[in-house]
Specification:
This protein is of the alpha/beta class. It contains 13 helices and 16 strands. The strands form three sheets. Strands 4-10-9-8-7-5-6 form a seven-stranded mixed β-sheet, sandwiched between helices. One of its GO terms (cellular component) is mitochondrion.
Amino acid sequence: MSQEMFQKERTLKMRERLIGQSCRLFFPQDPVKIVRARGQYLYDENGTQYLDCISNVHHVGHCHPLVTQAASAQMELLNANARFLHDNIVHYAERLAATLPKKLCIFYFVNSGSEANDLALRLARQYTRNEDVIVLDHAYHGHLTSLIDISPYKFRKLEGQKEWVHVAPLPDTYRGLYRRDHPNPGQAYADTVKDLIDEAQRKGRKISSFFVESLPSVGGQVILPSGYFPKVAEYVRAAGGVFVADEVQTGFGRVGSHFWAFQLQGEDFCPDIVTMGKPMGNGHPLSCVVTTEEIAGAFTANGVEYFNTFGGNPVSCAIGLAVLDVMEKEDLRGNAVRVGNHLKELLKQLQAKHPIIGDVRGVGLFVGMLSQHICLSTDGPWNSVIKFKPPMCFSLEDAERVSAEISHKKRNGIQQRFVKVITVLLYFYRI
């Protein structure tokens, strides 16, 4: 039986009464009540269409028919505890393995990016028998207590930095310590990690891992300098630690030219652990940790069984397989390249006209405002980065619509918060 649909005002009042106030809405001054969606479009209770530049989770588009059909068909047949033997989980693991370096071959399926990163932290500590973690400034890796502890974006607002956490400078070549005019910013920023390792070791501490988003998101959608990951991995491994690449936001072909964003650092570079999440299930809760046989073996050797009731269940894996099928059939990585190139060129043209746009940087689409029925948002340490993170089916026409709206905003000086934006970032399409 379907639930009664309330008027927007009643829904808002009920939410304020029933839902924790720390669970905030998009556009809180005038929330949009969304009742249906398809592709890159959202629709409110009045049938008004909005262009969605926010929902990177809905990777292949909202309510994609092949994904919903796969979910429905498997749900009607079987959904069971993941500890029962079933084909879907091994088929899905095999498909994912084909996208990764060969040494990343052991999978653990879970239900959220936070859960994946928490498990990655456990794996790293079990394998290395060390505790300390190095992270980037402004990083965010999830909402569990273990992950708030390694997320400067969160812990600086709460209990502060733990002694076992070491924070490296964000490798931002636009605003950071070493900028684009530096002869080798990748090496220079990697050396700041080496300095942290040396300082920790002088204090008798031991490094378990370097935890990093392959393209820092909350930190401002930063495109990392070439050579940074390989050199950092060299330093971390020499200190007895492992390299963890957080691909929860950036994985599954969003950078276009590669399936995983860490591959932008070179075809020969391979992390020791990779986490993935958000886009995996196209809105269905599905995530994963993949690692090497050696690290997985150390986790098994502790003698404590690991199980996850829902992680890798038949329905979740059927959905994950359908997402991969859609990506291939609709050439969404190719679309990422084409649309990304086009949007970046449009925004470069705007940058030439408006000095307040400090940077257009690019492996994709990330931007922010709610106007003319376009849903966008801002991010970065000073909330100064307009970011795009749309479904991968975003079109050339959608790109032109967004560019035209930004130009209109600049020309008319509307919305002071928007006008003060100094960095426009393209992110989820390879430029």
